[in-house]
Amino acid sequence: MRLSEARRDAARRLTTAGIEGAARDADRILAAVLGIEPGRLRLLDDRALTGDEMDRLDRGLAARSARQPVAQIVGFRDFYAHRFRVTPDTLDPRPETEVLVDQALGLPWKSVLDLGTGTGAILISLLAARPGARGLGTDISAAALEVARGNAARIGVEADFTLSDWYGGVTGRFDLIVSNPPYIALDEMAGLSDDVRDWEPHSALTDGADGLTAYRAIAAGATDHLSPGGHVLVEIGPTQGQAVAAMFAQAGAETRVIRDLDGRDRVVLARFSA
C-alpha cells in the first residue's frame, strides 16, 4: 500500500470506529511509524510502505480503535517547549496545564517542588526555562518516576525525584510548590471519555472521594515546606476554584483563581506572606 492510500485508509478506519478527529489521529500514528512529524506526511514521496511499517500502522490503528490514547500509542506528548515520553503509568500532559507553567514562570523562585509529578512535564518545563534553579518531583508511583527521570535526562534538565505521598519524606523548603493533583470526584469518573477512564492511571485522575483531598493535604503542609514569601500553584477542575482558594486562604495565603484560554477556572495561585 502506498503512503497516500495508507493515509486515507487509516482515516476511514478510525472514522468507522467512531473516533473523533479520526484523520488527525491517523496522521499522528502513521507519522510516528515513519519517524517524522505529522506535518511532513504531505511532503514525502508517495512510496509503498514496507511490511513492517504496515504491521505497526495496523497495530496502532487497532489500539486507537480500542480507545487507547494516541500519546500512549506513539509514546510521547508535546508539552510546552519539549517532548515527553508517555506511558500507561502516567497522566497524559494536557495543553491546559501549560497555563500553570506560564504563571509559574512569572513568579520569582529559584527552587520548586512538584507534587505528583507524573511524566515530570511541569517540573522539567520550569527548570528548562530557568537555568540554575533546582527542583524536586514526587510521586506515589515508582513507574511514573522512572518515566520522569528519563524525560529529564533526554531533555537535559537536572532534577531530583523521590517516591512520596505528597509531602511524606520531603525535607527542606522551596520558593514554589506546584501540582496537578487528582481532582476528579469519584462520582464523576463514569462521565469521563473511554480514552481517559479506561487507559490513564486512576490514581492520577481521582482521589476516590470528592476530588478535593489532595488540595487539603497540599494547603495544610504548604507553610512547612515553603520559603518565606513563597507561592503555591495548583491545577483545578473548572468548578473547584472557590473551594480550593478557600482552603489556601484558611492556611494563611492570599489567593487568586486563574482562567485558561477557554475562560474556565484552571489554576489557583496562593501567596504566603514572608
Explain what you see.
With 274 residues, the protein is an alpha/beta fold. The protein has two domains: 3-66, Helicase, Ruva Protein, domain 3 (Orthogonal Bundle), CATH 1.10.8; 89-272, Vaccinia Virus protein VP39 (Rossmann fold, 3-Layer(aba) Sandwich). The chain contains eleven helices and nine strands. The strands form two sheets. The chain has a seven-stranded mixed β-sheet with strand order 5-4-3-6-7-9-8, with helices on both faces. Strands 1-2 form a two-stranded antiparallel ribbon. Helix 1 (3-16) crosses helix 2, helix 2 (22-34) packs antiparallel against helix 3 (51-65) and helix 5 packs parallel to helix 6 (121-129). The longest helix has 15 residues, at 51-65. The protein is elongated, with a radius of gyration of 20 Å. It starts with a helix and ends with a strand. The mean pLDDT is 96.
